[in-house]
Design a protein that fits this description.
Elements: E1 2-6, E2 9-14, E3 17-20, H1 31-42, E4 67-69, H2 75-80, H3 87-90, E5 93-95, E6 100-101, E7 104-108, E8 116-118, E9 120-126, E10 142-149, E11 152-153, H4 159-162, E12 169-177, E13 188-193, E14 196-202, H5 210-220, E15 228-230, E16 238-239, E17 245-250, E18 254-261, H6 268-271
Parallel strand pairs: 4-15, 6-12, 7-18
Antiparallel strand pairs: 1-2, 1-12, 2-3, 4-5, 8-11, 8-16, 9-10, 9-15, 10-12, 13-14, 13-17, 17-18
The protein binds manganese (II) ion (MN).
Manganese (II) ion binds at residues 69, 119, 121, 150, 230, 232-233.
Amino acid sequence: MRVVRSAGRAGVLRGNAFVDATPLLSGIGDPTVELVGSWAQLGGRLDELPDEPLAGLEAPIVRPGKIIAAPANYGDHVREMEITVTVADLGLFLKAPTSITGPGGPVELPYTDRRTDQEAELALVVGRRARHVPPDRALDHVFGYTCLLDITVRGSEDRSTRKSFDTFTPIGPWIVTADEIPDPDRLTIRCWVNDVLRQDANTADLIFGVRELVAYASSVMTLEPGDLIATGTPAGVGPLAHGDLVAVEIEQVGRLEVTVTAAHAAPWENARPSPAID
Ligand code: MN
């Protein structure tokens, strides 16, 4: 099943129609987070709701509790970045939930004179609270999967700064429930910028696969329904420019497209804070 968000409402697709889950939800917090968290209790009640025309797709989750991400989790990307460490050395990092945007974007480039790259990634959505979950039980806590772009300014700042600008986490176009993807560690992932293929890989090459990432993250922090985990990007990252169209396609998951704009970009010198000097 595909969980979507349309006109600010969370629901599912039934064929080409939208089934609005709002009547089943409390209205408190992000409706998709609530839908994901109460999925098992809803049973067949979604089946009783009517079809509506689909108005267009938005980011399937707008305010997850957290976005956890894996750096350096494909060997070929580690080599292209000319670093010698991997996720096993670096651990995980967090992106601001306010960085989420949906299908279409746009991704807003913050600087006119800093390189900002696309990173195509498989993301998983946590379905059940998880703490200290072993890898062989990890998939029990995964609700589903979506396409994610981990947009990144290159430079020396902490990852959480360089990857947390507003619009730097496009997700969608929907969440495919986990029952449709029995093995998330065997999916083709491709990314095009203006129809030029930049990334072409398989999640089989993840250093920490989906099970290991859930287990590892849950050994650090409690995972809650609606939390996102971005699994990392393969080789082929590259700079984005005003007017670019970025497309991510993941086997069995879907295709996410966003545009890029520099309409609000400013020179780094203008944005950078001036440290106080004694
Ligand atoms: Mn990344």
